[in-house]
Design goal:
Keywords: Decarboxylase, Lyase. The chain contains 8 helices and 8 strands; from the N terminus they run αβαβαβααβββαβαβα. By secondary structure, it is α/β, with parallel strands linked by helices. Helix 1 packs parallel to helix 7 and helix 3 runs parallel beside helix 5. Bound molecules: magnesium ion.
């Protein structure tokens, strides 16, 4: 499975979830598949998906759809302390999806440590409920399973190295992205309040 194929599945599954997405190729491929006001692209903020997603999960109503973080292996291994932090603080409404291609895909495909470091075991040791897969069907099944758990959830998705061709750079203004996402969060919660 290529990254963009995994993102096609995640875009389909995440329509009602706040989504925090790692920088560079992952952000622009997700935006090319489907952009949405519920997407918060962390442009140039490598390593911070787990931090932002954990903070959001702690701050949001736990009865609303879970916060989904979409992270890469190079980025997670740049800031792996997000795993003990999330495991310790333990928001029940947090699902971190790791798209692991074994390389820094946006910067020349140099290898990351993920071929020798078991990142799923790291997450499990830190208190996350984990699943792993390398197929689109497995991604759907594991994602659904992890929506039902009451502690931080970690989904390790093995993907092929390589970036999708002919995907435009994501040149949206970060301030506009922040404002758009914050507005979506407010309106989503207001709508949830009217429906409850
Ligand atoms: Mg990678």
């Amino acid at each position: 499975m290529r990254r963009i194929e995994a993102l096609e599945v995640l875009a389909e599954l995440c329509g009602r979830h706040p989504v925090v997405v790692t920088c560079a190729a992952t952000s622009r491929e997700l935006a090319a598949v489907r952009d949405g006001d519920n997407h918060f692209y962390l442009l140039d903020a490598m390593g911070l998906v787990g931090s932002v997603a954990t903070g959001l999960a702690l701050g949001l109503d736990p009865d609303r759809p879970k916060v989904v973080g979409i992270e890469g292996d190079g980025s997670l291994l740049m800031n792996p302390n997000v795993l003990p932090t999330g495991g310790y603080l333990a928001p029940a409404n947090l699902l971190l999806v790791l798209l692991d291609n074994g390389v820094y895909g946006s910067t020349g495909a140099l290898p990351t440590y993920s071929s020798r470091v078991d990142v799923e075991a790291l997450a499990a040791a830190a208190g996350w409920t984990t699943r792993s897969t390398d197929t689109a069907d497995g991604l759907r099944t594991a994602f659904a399973d992890l929506l039902d758990v009451d502690e931080p959830a970690f989904l390790h998705v093995r993907i092929e190295p390589g970036n999708a061709p002919d995907v435009a750079k994501l040149l949206l203004d970060p301030v506009s992205l922040r404002d758009r996402f914050a507005r979506w969060l407010r309106e989503d919660h207001l709508a949830a309040g009217r429906n409850s």
